[in-house]
Amino acid sequence: MSGTNPFDLSRHLSSEAKARVANPMKAIWKLIQQQPNVVMLANGDPHFSLYPIRKVDFEVASIENQDPVKSWTASRLSARTLLLTSSSSNRSALPLNLGLQYANGAGRPEAQRAAAALTQFYHAPPDHITTLTLGNFDGITKCLRLLGEPGDKFLADEFAFRAVTNAGVPQGIEWISVKMDGCGMIPESLEEILVRWDEGRGKRPHVLYVVPCGQNPTGSTLSLERRRKIYEIAQLYDLVIIEDDPYYFLQYPSDPNDSSLVPSFLSLDTDGRVIRLDSLSKILAPGLRLGWLTSSAAFHEHLIALTDSSTQHPHGFGQVFLAELLSEHGWGLAGFDRWVSSLREEYRRRRDFFLEEFERRIGGSGLVNARAPEAGMFVWIRVNIEKHPRYQNGINAGDGAAARARTNVAQLMQELFMCCLDSGLVIVPASVFALSGDSVWDDSAVPIEDRVYFLRATFAGTEEIMRKGLEILANVLQTFFAE
Amino acid sequence: MSGTNPFDLSRHLSSEAKARVANPMKAIWKLIQQQPNVVMLANGDPHFSLYPIRKVDFEVASIENQDPVKSWTASRLSARTLLLTSSSSNRSALPLNLGLQYANGAGRPEAQRAAAALTQFYHAPPDHITTLTLGNFDGITKCLRLLGEPGDKFLADEFAFRAVTNAGVPQGIEWISVKMDGCGMIPESLEEILVRWDEGRGKRPHVLYVVPCGQNPTGSTLSLERRRKIYEIAQLYDLVIIEDDPYYFLQYPSDPNDSSLVPSFLSLDTDGRVIRLDSLSKILAPGLRLGWLTSSAAFHEHLIALTDSSTQHPHGFGQVFLAELLSEHGWGLAGFDRWVSSLREEYRRRRDFFLEEFERRIGGSGLVNARAPEAGMFVWIRVNIEKHPRYQNGINAGDGAAARARTNVAQLMQELFMCCLDSGLVIVPASVFALSGDSVWDDSAVPIEDRVYFLRATFAGTEEIMRKGLEILANVLQTFFAE
Ligand SMILES: Cc1ncc(COP(=O)(O)O)c(C=O)c1O
Ligand SMILES: Cc1ncc(COP(=O)(O)O)c(C=O)c1O
After folding, report:
1. Whole-structure pTM value
2. What is the ipTM of this complex?
3. Per the database record, which ranges form the Aminotransferase class I/classII large domain (chains A, B) (predicted)?
4. How far is the CA of A289 from the centre of ligand 1 (A)?
């Protein structure tokens, strides 16, 4: 999938990325590659005969059954398993002696190829290269370093995964929020910001961070139509799109017989302007700390340079695990697909359970409502806070960022959050995610401070947890609004 | 080992570190910790029943034998092993369901405690906290972010591990080189730089990067006396010391009955100004990508904030491995100590083998000489390039950084390197490591460009590799000098 790219990407790189000096050893390695049988007295690499680890076995779920997640969770300890083994034997997909040696930033070729095969299968991007990461968070923060300059303004959803946006702040990135509705980022709002941009106030944004499926926190999923529009805007205004898509495999289209997944930005990317991030966190386990990033060759080169001079290549056990899992002795690609399809059904059941409980317990109250998310793990609950006896509008609510607020929504929602907590329920208030937009661009009638009347709840837990949680929420809401 | 620290460290932090904004979720987690039995509808954390991994087994070397490395390498596939297992059973030192969940930057407490126990055992630092890292390289680059400001000048050995110094360059760190002799960094040279510092040329350096044992590339080890002097200078001039010590466990004191290890800077650190980095790379396997960093509480706090917003906590398999290995079902601390002691003897044998071959094949030539390193994996070979027929002195050798050179040492050494490569030997020329000092501080009669007459060779390989490599080197040297 490597190759040249028509789109010149270098102007998007940060001066930090451009200032990265090549390791002088690199030139030496290049020379060595032309020399087939060299004797190495060069590097302080312990010889593998001194690694005190002979073999690693991972006992994983079998995917023989048509619905492997169901049998895995139902049969529990008696569920069938498959043993993935790596040793120094060359029957290993990634032999341990190689997996436990130093490697380079992109990852061992065996593991990198396994991840690339997934990308090829699901997205068939025009012309991109895969780099292993330590999960999407690591991948995104590397992109911020690669693309972000102090003072740069980047675009994101107005309710965003704050851990990511916060991570950009110390390096001087400012975030400009794009309006959302129930279907995610509104392309017209994105375009408006760019059309009306006044260069006198700083460089126009050149990066858009977007979570296309089951967005965190709103649970919204961008339709193909919106994706196309956003991509066109990106072409028009020369944006790089960071596509953070950990919930890609967890899509629940309204027609349950429709098993298709919405095409990713990557799959539409003829220009090489999309950097896509995939993660094993939500589909296998978050503690694996493994994911992969797909980008144009030009970005790839800078990414591995950055990786080589920061985290270095991902951990050997994870790479071995990935390579073995996707090999013919493991799940293979077909088995992986069966697992994620089955997992999708499992989460769809959980989502439906959540929504039924929600409807049954609080649906009739008129105090809250929620729409069924088409992907991910989150339900975004609209609290009809305007019905609260102490709700106020047309006031001057605070100073600092809150100066624009004309209501006491933020304060009431904070009270509601504390009431939940006091009753033993943790649910996340929207204020945690609200990107306080630059008011110069944000002339909407209602500033975000007055629209934080949402709660983020997850259906990732067990039925027991959901039942208990929603019971508490119902009680708290009754009391809180009945004041 | 936590506690307050008398030394105010905050002035050493970069503005980037200080600008890091707290994740608003953190405040919520604080509240939750006061609430014992909460129902969590908060986070998108997959439930562990959905992780398709039931068990992981690591087959590691047994440490029952007194000299476990010897029996491991001698008996190879028939060598005795020990099985480390982690599952969701609570007999696991770090159960897999916890190890594979999201955690925080410092690492799971079980693994963090295991690393802290090693630090306590070997260094007994006055008042420090341990944070897990992805190996020393990751740890150092995080320290650079934590302490470095664009334009800052940091101190390092004049021949340094360039991957580290280069990593600081894109963020604007400039390196000032400190003179070395066969015993490593010269304390008097360090002091001279600081005494003579002219603030008009920029802020005085506040960070010293040092590799105290088996320095890469020179193989030198700082004596306890030098360490004390350097620490005193650090106190006087308020330096933070980054102690990068991957070769700590590979020390070969001249008296083979002396099994003591030179005390680390950390063990001397009453002020909290030492940040020490330990790695599993050289003693277990580099692909593990796991290490730990020991610092004062004030630095620790900023480190985990940085980790939480970049790499995130280290991979679960590695943490599980470390926790199990050091548990009573694994090697335990005593077993670990036996392994590293035995490994030390193994590398001492390799070093001695290397030096004997070196002496036998080229020792008499008068063209090169080398001193026996007291730690690590490297021999620093002095090439007596002055004996080369084309050696020139008192010339004007080049422009740019090389303008200070008065000899053609750099050019001849490059030729020698290429001759080695053409004959099938990879050995690293000193120019790769030479930090071109700021000439204003460096008024030594002979600039570093004229002192790159060294080659770095490693004895980490097998005897076969060393024998072949030194044979080639001997032949190349004869031909090269006989021109
Ligand atoms: C939108 C989004 N991006 C990234 C992440 C982090 O993913 P990873 O575990 O792969 O770093 C999360 C996790 O909650 C998320 O919701
Ligand atoms: C001095 C020094 N520091 C750090 C490292 C890298 O260590 P790690 O593998 O723990 O990142 C090396 C590896 O060669 C080294 O020689």
Report:
1. 0.95
2. 0.95
3. 101-467
4. 10
